[in-house]
């Protein structure tokens, strides 16, 4: 293994545009490195490209990588389909999880786990793990019999994402605005779930507009994304600073005020 | 067609009568055979000028060139006594106890003069299924009919005939399974259903035809006061599947439900025609037909829900959804509402034709499912709403297996 393999994720000078609108480049030279056990927070104003970065790391066909590289555990995955990245151990918790009527959570999870492990998971073993994870997340067992995200409340959708995270045990978890649309109680439940499922090997990238969730899951590094570039990185204090004063002082300090909102 | 095809004597009046005599059929049935043979002779093949046949041209199909053949018929039914019966239609028709009841009902819902495929069936059927349940009789388990044409020679024709007669407050559930080999086979079936007051009838048509089977089916029910009829169809195999399912919803408060699932690949051609004819007041109907189409397969739906002047206070729902799994697959959907009274509770209809939801596909792929596995899960889920209403144990799991197996090799 190369020296790079101690990094779970490495994003090098990444440029990404929308697949249907190649002229619209959203990510314009992003760099990021995440090591095992680390929690990174990616913050930024609306329209700065946070979700685009998350989705392109996960391999969404809605985006096109124009240049740059995404390395996962030292392997170049820039051109790899989403399902292969997921099987290697990448996980994206969606900001707006899609409803799939007719497909039960339990069937879906079983197929996903089979894909992740590369072999059929015996029914008893699977159900045992499912029960355990539901319990950890304080979720009722009836949840597993419902159709995927179909008729779920905002809080249920986010918990369903964390349930999948718990079952699939990825090496990298990207949580895209997992806190949005949640009230304080739901937020705490989801954050406790993430903490309960955390291992020393997993790298976590939390994407958030506000620092609310970071009071429950403390980040090691905080990045500020503006106009498709990470313009500043720091420790938890940076998130606190944004909570107190918003993004404007940082933008002014960097001389890029006003640019972000037009992106 | 350039080359002439042999017209088989079995279809001429003399041939039909000779066949009936060879089977020692009773005189009344012999007379019906003769009428049917004449109707067949006098009735032209449907043309694409007729709306229900617009997308399924049969002008090249010469029925008389397909040799009538008897498939293996197995009927699993509970033992019944008295007027109750579940078994061979041919036996019942000749039987002293049941013959009169068969004579009264057979051909009363679907008449031989209606069309060429139906006339051929009326003239040619050798055996079929008869289920007669007198007042308040309930069968604990469904009658399971297996029609096995896997032994048929190339160019054979089979003519299944099914008659279900449910008396007042009786309950019947019938599962009809069709199988054949991959040789060319013509199937023309007729299913007649009577549901008297408060009767409940459930029929599942489970098609597992081989690659070159062409099926033409007419299924029609008469639904009495407070009665409830459901016909569900699973169309998995076959080359051409044309099913016409009609309900005459005659009684007050009667209900008719039609459910259909089609899973196509290669050049499979499905054509569903439905009619929900509301005649009785406060009657209800519900149609839901879903097709998932891989390869260059095709699905056509044309359905009419008619609410007659007499059917005040009725409700109807009609939905057809088509999922295109490949860029060569096609679907045409035409649900029609004809409401002749201003007094209806609610009448709705909807139709969709479109590819798999890209967001759902990415969601599943982002969890590690390969593209094909994601399609398998999405299609099984797509059919779920149709299947959950069909009261046959284990059907949902069985269909899921069928979907997974068929899509494992399908052209996506």
Report the span from N to C terminus of chain A: 39 Å
Q: Average pLDDT of chain A, to the nearest integer? A: 92
Total strand count of chain B, please?
20
What number is the mean pLDDT of chain B? 96
Helix share, percent of chain A: 25-40%
* The CATH fourth-level homologous superfamily of chain A: P-loop containing nucleotide triphosphate hydrolases
Apparent shape of chain A: globular
Note the main sheet of chain B.
Answer: 11 strands, mixed
Uncertain runs of chain A with pLDDT below 50, 5 residues or more? 259-263
Number of beta-strand segments of chain A: 12
- Quaternary structure classification: heterodimer
Structural notes for this entry:
The complex is a heterodimer of chains A (263) and B (412). By secondary structure, chain A is an alpha/beta fold. Chain A has eight helices and twelve strands. Chain B is an alpha/beta fold. Chain B has a domain at 9-251. Chain B contains eight helices and 20 strands. Chain B has helices at 13-22, 27-42, 89-94, 99-105, 116-124, 358-365, 371-387, 395-409; strands at 67-68, 72-76, 85-88, 128-133, 143-149, 156-158, 161-166, 171-180, 185-195, 200-208, 213-223, 228-235, 240-249, 255-264, 269-278, 284-293, 298-307, 314-324, 330-339, 344-355. In chain B, strands 1, 3, 4, 6, 7, 9, 11, 13, 15, 17 and 19 form an eleven-stranded mixed β-sheet that branches. In chain B, strands 2-5-8-10-12-14-16-18-20 form a nine-stranded mixed β-sheet, covered by helices on one side. Chain B starts with 12 loop residues before the first helix and ends with a helix. The chains are: A alpha/beta (263), B alpha/beta (412). The A-B interface holds A 58-62, 81-83, 86-87, 91-92, 94, 97-98, 100-103, 107-108, 111-112, 115-116, 147, 164, 168 and B 357-360, 362-371, 373-374, 377-378, 380-385.
